[in-house]
């Protein structure tokens, strides 16, 4: 079974520029998550999709971050404009089920973002 | 107060040692619990689920105390390959929302 695919692996941009990350979940997984992991911290959930609908974006900085999952499969996460504190690894994960499913989440390799 | 708290370590232990990690969580409505392992510059991977009755997977034993809101992981006969960061994770239910601790770093040396 192919895992969660993410691209790019690394990205370096200057502050105030924009950047986009892409994620392709495991085939058949209805739920997709974007996490931000700052060095020395655990992953923090930014946004969660159930099929193509958002079920939790309470920790997404909506003034600069946006995400979409138009056809319920692939997803993109965008930052515009980037700030220095956005330097982190952005992890995408997917799981089979929806509400109360308690299904394990499978993570992609992540995109390591550095803001100069 | 953080939702999931862990001792960051590092724990430096020799091969063959037994080491224990602890974790506390603040939300009493948390529904399920896990330990994830994260190697340096890699993604988190599920190590094991944690049940109230305690559960064991080879050299790894996990325990949950719901009354104290406390989770533990015991590693026996440590191997060099066990060197990693161990993340305590709580599932708040609903749409399978996970809250991660900051992780405990383990370094096993020869």
Structural summary, described in words:
By secondary structure, chain A is mainly beta. Chain A has strands at 5-7, 10-13, 19-24, 31-37, 44-50, 53-56, 65-68, 75-79, 88-95, 106-107, 111-115. In chain A, the strands form 2 sheets. In chain A, strands 2, 4, 5, 6, 9, 10 and 11 form a 7-stranded mixed beta sheet that branches. Chain A has a 4-stranded antiparallel beta sheet with strand order 1-3-8-7, with no helix packed on it. The model of chain A has no long low-confidence stretch (mean pLDDT 93). By secondary structure, chain B is mostly beta strands. Chain B is built from no helices and 11 strands. Chain B has strands spanning 4-6, 11-14, 19-25, 32-38, 45-50, 55-57, 60-65, 70-75, 84-91, 98-100, 104-109. In chain B, strands 2, 4, 5, 9, 10 and 11 form a 6-stranded mixed beta sheet that branches. In chain B, a hairpin with a 6-residue loop joins strand 9 (84-91) and strand 10 (98-100). Chain B is globular, with a radius of gyration of 13 Å. The termini of chain B are far apart. The interface between A and B is medium-sized, with 28 and 25 residues.
Count of DSSP H/I helices of chain B: 0
Percentage of residues in strands of chain B: over 45%
- Gyration radius over CA of chain B: 13 Å
Question: Helix count of chain A?
Answer: 0
Secondary-structure element order of chain A, N to C = EEEEEEEEEEE
- Helix/strand-derived category of chain B reads mainly beta
The major β-sheet of chain A equals: 7 strands, mixed
End-to-end separation of chain B in angstroms reads 37 Å
- Structural category of chain A: mainly beta
How would you describe the shape of chain A?
globular
Note the beta-strand portion of chain A: over 45%
- Taking all Cα atoms into account, the compactness measure Rg of chain A is 13 Å
Run of helices and strands of chain B: EEEEEEEEEEE
Average pLDDT across residues of chain A? 93
Number of strands of chain A: 11
The oligomeric state is heterodimer
């Amino acid at each position: 079974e192919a895992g969660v695919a993410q691209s790019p692996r690394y990205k370096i941009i200057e502050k105030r520029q924009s950047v986009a990350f892409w994620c392709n979940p495991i085939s058949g997984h209805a739920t997709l998550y974007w996490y931000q992991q700052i060095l020395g911290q655990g992953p923090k959930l930014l946004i969660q999709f159930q099929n193509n609908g958002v079920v939790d974006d309470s920790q997404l900085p909506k003034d600069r971050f946006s995400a979409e999952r138009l056809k319920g499969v692939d997803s993109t996460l965008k930052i515009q404009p980037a700030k220095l504190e956005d330097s982190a690894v952005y992890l995408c994960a997917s799981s089979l089920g929806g509400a109360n499913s308690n299904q394990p989440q499978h993570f992609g390799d992540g995109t390591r973002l550095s803001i100069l | 107060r953080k939702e999931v708290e862990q001792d960051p370590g590092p724990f430096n232990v020799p091969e063959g040692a037994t080491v224990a990690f602890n974790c506390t969580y603040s939300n009493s409505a948390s529904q399920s619990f896990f330990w994830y392992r994260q190697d340096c510059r890699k993604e988190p991977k599920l190590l094991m689920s944690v049940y109230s009755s305690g559960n064991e997977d080879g050299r790894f034993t996990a325990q949950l105390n719901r009354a104290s809101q406390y989770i533990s992981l015991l590693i026996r006969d440590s191997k060099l390959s066990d060197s990693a960061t161990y993340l305590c994770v709580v599932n708040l239910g609903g749409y399978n929302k996970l809250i991660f601790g900051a992780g405990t770093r383990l370094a096993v040396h020869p």
